[in-house]
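Dear H.,

Thanks for agreeing to be a second pair of eyes. The structure we're designing against is below in token form, covering all 115 positions.
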């Protein structure tokens, strides 16, 4: 037996023991990014339609929210792969979603709602 073949491991054994970092980042970017985009869209829609008296219709507010949501989705996917670890990608995604989602939901829950 040669020196190159001294120890051979089963290829799937190590992969099953720990989560795959690329898979985790992909799920963080796609699923976490979707949550982040939705939270941002809700917040922007609630702020734009929030009865400011500036004459914006509900459709304009929804369009603005959708555009911001799409931009946030792209940034979230980039963020998931640009961070140093998969855990940091998940943490940043969840924190940003909470920071955008909670105020948006509170604005929508106001008596009388928005728009």
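And this is the sequence the design step returned. I haven't edited it by hand at all.
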């Amino acid at each position: 037996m040669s020196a190159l073949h001294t120890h051979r491991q089963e290829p799937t054994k190590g992969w099953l023991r720990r989560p795959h970092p690329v898979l985790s980042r992909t799920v963080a970017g796609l699923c976490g990014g979707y949550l982040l985009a939705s939270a941002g869209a809700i917040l922007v829609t609630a702020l734009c339609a929030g009865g400011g008296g500036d004459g914006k219709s509900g459709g304009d507010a929804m369009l603005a929210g959708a555009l911001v949501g799409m931009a946030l989705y792209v940034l979230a996917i980039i963020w998931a792969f640009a961070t140093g670890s998969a855990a940091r990608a998940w943490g940043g995604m969840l924190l940003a979603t909470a920071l955008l989602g909670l105020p948006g939901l509170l604005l929508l829950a106001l008596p009388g709602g928005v728009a």
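Two observations from my side: The mean pLDDT is 83. The CA atoms of residues 48 and 54 lie 9 Å apart.

Warmly,
E.
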